[in-house]
Amino acid sequence: MGMSFDRYMRDMVQPMRDELTVLGIRELTTPEEVEEQFEAAKGTALVVVNSVCGCAAGQARPGVALALQNEVKPDHLFTVFAGQDKEATAKAREYFAPYPPSSPSIALLKDGELVHFIERHQVENRSAEEIAADLTDAFNRYCQ
């Protein structure tokens, strides 16, 4: 067996990463990238904390995709991957206080301040369409 566990995991999660990056969402994989991009992101920024769980696949990522069809969208789109890019995810979560770590989760920042947050428990029991409606309401409120 020649494949390392890390390589195996990277190969397994790549399609989950691609579901967001194909939408134009920029993946941040290091704490330095998170800090640099968040600090430079004037206006609004959507941050998706991606994960391998079923609710990320069935509700969160599809909900984000639907929400980004809205006419009003955030100025910046970012994602970090919980459990994969651990340090980058920890750095991003510093911006989501007072909320505890949650994955998947979706944050909307305006000029670096958290203005809307969807925690895992708000993903688990809702459909992608309900999550998209929640996000589009937030986009319409904060991104104009």
TrEMBL record:
Q: Which family does it belong to?
A: Belongs to the bacilliredoxin family.
Under Gene3D superfamilies, the record lists: 6.10.250.2150, Glutaredoxin (3.40.30.10)
Xref: PANTHER family: BACILLIREDOXIN BRXA, UPF0403 PROTEIN YQIW-RELATED
Q: What Pfam families would the database entry show?
A: Disulph_isomer (PF06491)
Top-level taxonomic group? Bacteria
Spell out the protein name for this chain: BrxA/BrxB family bacilliredoxin
Q: Which organism is it from?
A: Paenibacillus ihbetae
